[in-house]
Amino acid sequence: MTAAFPLPQLAETPRDAREKCGVVAVWGEPHPARAVYFGLFALQHRGQESAGIAVTDGVRIERHTGMGLVPQVFDSNTLARLDAAAHAREARHRGRPGGAIGHNRYSTTGASRPENAQPFLASIRGGPLAIAHNGNIVNARELRTSLEDKGHAFYTSSDTEVILHLVASLSRGRQNDPLAEALRMLRGAFSLVFLSHDRVEVARDPWGWRPLSIGITAAGNPVAASETVALDVLGARHLRDVEPGEIVTFRDGPAGGPPLIETRRFADPAPRLAQCVFEHVYFAHPASRIFGQTVQAVREKLGEQLAREAPAAADAVLPMPDSGRSAATGFARASGLPYREGIIPNRYVGRTFIQPSGDERATAARLKLNIVTDLVRGQRIVIVDDSVVRGTTTRGRMEQLRAAGAREIHLRIACPPIRHPCFFGVDFPDSAQLLAHGRDLEQIRQTLKVDSISYLSLDGLLAIAAGAGAAVEEREKFCSACYSGEYRIPIPAQLSKDVLAKC
Amino acid sequence: MTAAFPLPQLAETPRDAREKCGVVAVWGEPHPARAVYFGLFALQHRGQESAGIAVTDGVRIERHTGMGLVPQVFDSNTLARLDAAAHAREARHRGRPGGAIGHNRYSTTGASRPENAQPFLASIRGGPLAIAHNGNIVNARELRTSLEDKGHAFYTSSDTEVILHLVASLSRGRQNDPLAEALRMLRGAFSLVFLSHDRVEVARDPWGWRPLSIGITAAGNPVAASETVALDVLGARHLRDVEPGEIVTFRDGPAGGPPLIETRRFADPAPRLAQCVFEHVYFAHPASRIFGQTVQAVREKLGEQLAREAPAAADAVLPMPDSGRSAATGFARASGLPYREGIIPNRYVGRTFIQPSGDERATAARLKLNIVTDLVRGQRIVIVDDSVVRGTTTRGRMEQLRAAGAREIHLRIACPPIRHPCFFGVDFPDSAQLLAHGRDLEQIRQTLKVDSISYLSLDGLLAIAAGAGAAVEEREKFCSACYSGEYRIPIPAQLSKDVLAKC
Amino acid sequence: MTAAFPLPQLAETPRDAREKCGVVAVWGEPHPARAVYFGLFALQHRGQESAGIAVTDGVRIERHTGMGLVPQVFDSNTLARLDAAAHAREARHRGRPGGAIGHNRYSTTGASRPENAQPFLASIRGGPLAIAHNGNIVNARELRTSLEDKGHAFYTSSDTEVILHLVASLSRGRQNDPLAEALRMLRGAFSLVFLSHDRVEVARDPWGWRPLSIGITAAGNPVAASETVALDVLGARHLRDVEPGEIVTFRDGPAGGPPLIETRRFADPAPRLAQCVFEHVYFAHPASRIFGQTVQAVREKLGEQLAREAPAAADAVLPMPDSGRSAATGFARASGLPYREGIIPNRYVGRTFIQPSGDERATAARLKLNIVTDLVRGQRIVIVDDSVVRGTTTRGRMEQLRAAGAREIHLRIACPPIRHPCFFGVDFPDSAQLLAHGRDLEQIRQTLKVDSISYLSLDGLLAIAAGAGAAVEEREKFCSACYSGEYRIPIPAQLSKDVLAKC
Amino acid sequence: MTAAFPLPQLAETPRDAREKCGVVAVWGEPHPARAVYFGLFALQHRGQESAGIAVTDGVRIERHTGMGLVPQVFDSNTLARLDAAAHAREARHRGRPGGAIGHNRYSTTGASRPENAQPFLASIRGGPLAIAHNGNIVNARELRTSLEDKGHAFYTSSDTEVILHLVASLSRGRQNDPLAEALRMLRGAFSLVFLSHDRVEVARDPWGWRPLSIGITAAGNPVAASETVALDVLGARHLRDVEPGEIVTFRDGPAGGPPLIETRRFADPAPRLAQCVFEHVYFAHPASRIFGQTVQAVREKLGEQLAREAPAAADAVLPMPDSGRSAATGFARASGLPYREGIIPNRYVGRTFIQPSGDERATAARLKLNIVTDLVRGQRIVIVDDSVVRGTTTRGRMEQLRAAGAREIHLRIACPPIRHPCFFGVDFPDSAQLLAHGRDLEQIRQTLKVDSISYLSLDGLLAIAAGAGAAVEEREKFCSACYSGEYRIPIPAQLSKDVLAKC
Predict the structure, then answer these.
(1) Does A341 score more than 90 pLDDT?
(2) Which distant-in-sequence residues (6+ apart) come within 8 Å of B302 by Cβ?
């Protein structure tokens, strides 16, 4: 007779997935689930794999999550069911309809797992608690092992579950602030929203990696969201960003008054902040205001700077659709060349599309983009894009332009070459798959088969991200590790090995 | 500034759902997921809300669950993906393909919750652990509160999650047998199957409430299932039932040999067993052998005994389809009356059916059952059914028979009147909704508008369930609380209040 | 330069599909689509491939058809949309809500074609016309070729479309009765329902092959349906059957009065009728009254007659589920042997079921049926079934019974051996696939591996189908060509070659 | 006794639907269904309601149609099944894989009718015939009535079915060319593709209303499509457009050789052509070459001309996404103002989106478009769009820009005001719903609440559509009736009444 469940040689561990995500939270809204739905819709670009919303009825928390886009996951019935929870609270506490949080999730891991859809919801000592997370915790593995040793059971491979268990675990005794205590144990990037029966709490890591903004609706209710574009959609005024190391609480105010917005610190801001510069380059919505500047304006300026750093003798500037349009208008303006839309994306190309195979490969490319031959044939053209990651798509498009008769192609990229992995929430492929990994500029040019190629300088990028007239120190507030390889905090050997192992 | 998450007035607690379910486990099968699939299919009558299967690859455990019937939840691709885990193990440990467990779940709670689908799977200190459960734990609420106080986070309202956390929690230290220790803390009905990276463990509560049988396939591999009908489908020989208070382990045997079947006790059998007599009356499959007797033969004998206890002067015996057929053949045989199929159920009536409304109500009944008018008009008929719960369906059918011209209707029920709730895994409605609750026989007769009604006596039922020639003490091995109100273990006030509160 | 569209060598022609189907028609009902829906539901056993309903609004006809079972094809919204047409008519003509027809279709042809779903709806000279058909027209091919030569375009391969075009074609001139004229040109089996803007017309072929009954609802509205079980469901009284060669019309009566039921003949009844005896044996619903007798009572009597013709020394009679139950009760009654349900069909087996492959074949059989071993092991059993077509299922079940320990198996079939194809609406497989085709009784016994086998005699069958005390000539009113090979009308060479060609 | 089916007062008639559609045809391709699929995908902008493909196997024609976008209607299995027909032909006629045609359909009629999905397929005297149509036949109603009088039955309300029946009807006798004869009877707009067992035939109406081009693939196989962008996707070289009044045939060439392309006339070109100028303004794909010019280049020039005709004192030019981008770049270039993308469309807005209601209306607008506030606040902006139809969307966007702080808004539209319905294939709303119907320029300005508004002149539009340096007569080759009300052929009273009746 033997003891049950001896240790296997390899324990199941978090898969260190690096996810891009969006979060939203509201308090005091009459239809909080609908409000969060519209906010998530505005943040759909941050994650398309799954979506979820949690709403409190003052005692319990109702939750709905699903795979797919926000409008696929939620229909009117589901939203009405969730908002019924808020109405139940309102009936109990006159005039206080309660709150909700929501999450969009993006993951490139092959197996889409419904159980990873957030918000997570659990019953802990203090009552029900829901959580949604944008970022990546680099010490999740060691925290989880330690909790398992204490008798905890984990249902997912997500680092977000580790945060939830930490809070539950610290709610055991009589601590003053289990949430702050838990957040102090985390190392990495996190913009978090929590919902309990009587409040919303939102928090941002001490390095400020991911954006997180607070606003206030016309009715005076507080809102938090990953980006200001979600505040805009809700008609909310942008108050300020959550500060690195800060927890902000939304809860009922005195009878008849608006909700309260309270603040406390769980940690001092890091001496060197690590705002992700790639949010400005690619990830954030053009209409959002991130780290103090409007994204679209930044991108136009990157194009202008690129034109100054790397001009080209050409007949026209063509944007790579849709990613290069902002920088291309800046490039055209600064260079004086005409801006022409010569590459037309097929707006019906989606995931269900039948892939052409074998001899139909050229057809595949032509289905995704149509070249306006008259604008390209016999011309010297500048193609502007915001960034290049793998380069496979870019190469195909360059071939397509050449086949359409372009005389010269000058490729201009509005950021430096990406050469290093990100451990803080952007899901780049393994280094070996990055176009610029191990290739110099001439090798890249040959790979893409263009007549000339230039990237924007890192100095140029940081100067513009910091803002016109900013002191040089301001440039230090950005993490640009994907370009430079300089990480703000040490990466555990296991994490970097995971990546290396795949190379 | 306030502490996070103060206690709400009512904590979210388990909803004390009483579920009927089926479980299956195999070890050593070449395609363990397919084997469990076929076993679950044979147990579909025990639960139609959700189904799930978990398979180990020797290190991790793969799992798939979904809402609906077994063939709706699983397709060939899903089974192949699960069995790939077993094949991975086989490749590692030559000739040892590993094991799987599965679960069918039935719930009448309004909101079907995908997260309640079993098997549950967690990563705990000892590695991955999957669990599936048939039964109901009556002290789940207090166990859960105690675990929450220790810092545990619960994701569902299921008592099965409490069992899982108990095992995780006791795996913290150096206990000899955390599984046995956990099971000893449970009070209530449980037939359980567990899967870890290197074994299956199956266990049955000390009272023996729910059935759980072990068999061995033609290839020599061990199988466990809620009912023998699942063993039959797999071509497995029925070895014996798991004993009350016993844990049976399936794991790899010595190289080249068949798997081992090991046994240990976590508790002595209860002094008075509590085998559920309603399994024989209604719930178990007719072809199963339960608590030592074949169900179909028992049901025929219940009909014979009923004919002896309550004969009727009539022209023919008609079974209530499909539930009364077994008892009706026994009744016809013992009474000498002809057996005639005069009530034909529509086999296409399903859940998507459009409900007739208002003046179409009679149409609704006629859609579900067609009366063969020639066999009923002007006749004195005996209608035999196995049991009556709410009585609403029965009343409608009696009206339908009368409308078809029946001269006399004599209703005969092959078990006593059901008057009390079950806390051990059968989901009866609240007492107030039971036909026989607070009604004497004459009142029941008037409610159903029949010419006479008789139920089988409790003595008659128990004598036949115990088996021909069994000592009187054998009758004491059955729980018949739904008829008598005598519960084998005390019911916590909260549980019985829950029911009363609903009345 | 060449002429367009020269003749291909093989023209696309009707595929001579032999379909079992059900039809329903109502006039004057307040919700005619819902009424037809319930009627079709009651006739679901006549066809499961597609369903459809057409309703008139007094000018146009609205139609909905779809693949699958009736409740899959129609939801409340669809029925409400269809009934809105009737309400529009009611608003126009006070108190006259109009009518509807419907159809269930069964086809074993591999390619399910949505465009073959009936009712068909067309706009012709006289206005819109909808049609639904049960039967098979043996001269459809030559009628269609003739119409194509006149410039007609056909969209389907269905013989029903030919009927529709015939009516349209004859509506050209000033004929007194284009419908009667069209029907006179058809040879074969047809029970038809038509809907135009102001009436329903129903017709039955001069041979009376397929059933078609008329009833009247409690509100005084006329109903027609393939079987009386549909009248029962609608609470309608069975008036009489449509006579061979008759057209019955339902249309508005004088203001304030009930609808009119009018009759006319398009042909005299055939000198020798050809009522399909297989409707009684297998196809019709047990609760229906067909060709003057109740189906269930006929089937019981077939079992009694079988016991007289072919008794067996045995311990019990077991029905083959679900088809043999009626005959088995008759057999048990006449033989004095006990009737026992020892073969339990799995009611969850459906089309989505994953087929066991290779070594799992025995599992497949056991999944579909469970044997109650105690009732079979060591016993001499009589198995009664209504008919045997291919015999493959029967053989598997006999093996299963033997494996469960049956000592002797005596198979009794309540009709004669089926040896010939049907060209009049029953979709038997090609002759070569019929068990009894080219095999004598002993060969059949060996094929099925039973200890004895007997079929009911053709005389016995026809005597009971004709009814107790019927004159011998009454037996001549039935078509029994599938047993005898004697077809009432000559089969075109092409049709019989089609079958032979496949052999 | 009465005659069947007397005439109702209103016969069901074609609904005069005006549809925008796309057609494709190929001959000789190894996978003709896949080729047509890719072609339809490139023409998706011409119709999103349904799609369909028909393929011949040399004798029969296989067809698949469905509701939705091309990739929703077809999956790999469906395409493989269709292409199997072509492979069957290839096996029969070595090296001649046959052909296929396809259709995209757009309809704004409320009830989407699956039976209206094209290609239509029928069996006629000459064998199977499939047809697909882009355009609108204005004398369809009278042709259909005449055919019904001859005994024809119509299944749809589509004018395309009338064309099919005409061809069938004329194939009766020994005409030399039933197709040409049928086309000569049609008045209106039609670009047609036909498939029979041995050829494709494509035809264009004598007025040349809709585009239709012919190309040749790298392998030498002929292709026809509504727009050249579909030829591009298939890697086909654009040979020329089908001429007004021409039929072009694709069929097998001599053994071993490429397919033949043959031509004949069914009519002379109309003295005044009627090429739809709105194809250039809005409808055609920017990368297509239509009526002799590249669409994108035409649109840029319309913007340039607009800047010359109606300059504005402003800070920046913003395109209305996505429709105004081409004209806006032209406007910016000619005016010297900076081009800035300040209005960002949400690319996830689709049809399943939950509509905000009541007080959420402003949210709805903000969900569809996000304003980059920094580029708009305090600025004088020119907004350029290609056209305005109803104006409701435009008005909402102007409000949104004003709310974002725009100081002055100058709206510039790159075509004249639309004031008249189209009867030739563009589905404009009823006149009364057109913004410019009954409003002068100042009224339009006030309705849209902008500081200034200007439309391009009709002369300016036609001069550019005709091409640089074209003779003034060339401008007469375009139909511009939606601007001018001058229709090339008389509109039947019924058709124009239909529209007026709705006003």
Answers:
(1) yes
(2) B281, B327, B330, B386, B414, B415, B456, B460, B461, B464
Instruction: Name B398's Cβ contacts closer than 8 Å, sequence gap at least 6.
Output: B383, B409, B411, B448, B449, B450
Element (H, E) at C121: strand C120-124
> Would you call A154 and B115 a contact, using CB atoms and an 8 Å cutoff?
no
pLDDT surpasses 50 at D24: yes
D21 has catalytic annotation: yes
For chain A, the chains sharing at least 3 beta-carbon pairs closer than 8 angstroms are B, D
Interface with chain C: mutation pick from B40, B344, B352, B359, highest number of C CBs within 10 Å: B344
B332 has a chain C CB within 8 A of its CB: yes
Rounded CA separation B6/A124 (Å): 11
C68 vs C107: CA distance, rounded Å: 11
Q: Which of the following CATH numbers is that of domain C289-484: 3.40.50.2020, 3.30.750.80, 3.30.160.270, 3.40.50.300?
A: 3.40.50.2020
> Which 6-25 residues of chain D touch chain C by CB within 8 A?
6-13
Nearest CA in chain D to A42: D367
Task: Give the A window 429-488 contacts with B, CB below 8 Å.
Answer: none
Whether domain D21-137+187-270 has CATH 3.40.50.300: the reply is no
Alpha-carbon span B88 to B83, nearest angstrom: 9
- Going D480 to D486 to D492 to D497, the CA torsion angle's sign is positive
Q: Does D249 contact C at CB distance below 8 Å?
A: yes
pLDDT tens, A269-298?
999 999 999 999 999 999 999 999 999 999
Residue D81 CA to residue D207 CA, distance in Å, equals 38
Interchain contact D75–A (C-beta under 8 A): yes
> What residues does each domain of chain C span?
21-137+187-270, 289-484
Q: Which residues are CB-neighbours of B422 under 8 A, at least 6 positions away? A: B18, B278, B428, B481, B482
- How many Å apart are CA D383 and CA C275, to the nearest integer? 78
Q: Considering only alpha carbons, which residue of chain C is nearest residue B229?
A: C370
Number of C-beta neighbours around residue D140 at 10 A:
25
Task: Judge B/A contact: 3 or more CB pairs < 8 A.
Answer: yes
Residue in D88, D61, D127 with CA at minimum distance from that of residue C11: D127
Distance from CA of A28 to the nearest CA of B (A): 18
Asked if this assembly's ipTM is beyond 0.90, the reply is no
Q: How far is D433 from chain C (nearest CA, A)?
A: 28
pLDDT in tens, D301-331: 999 999 999 999 999 999 998 899 999 999 9
pTM confidence score: 0.87
For chains B and C, count residue pairs whose Cβ atoms are closer than 8 Å.
Answer: 165
| Least confident piece of the model among C8-17, D194-203, D354-363 | C8-17
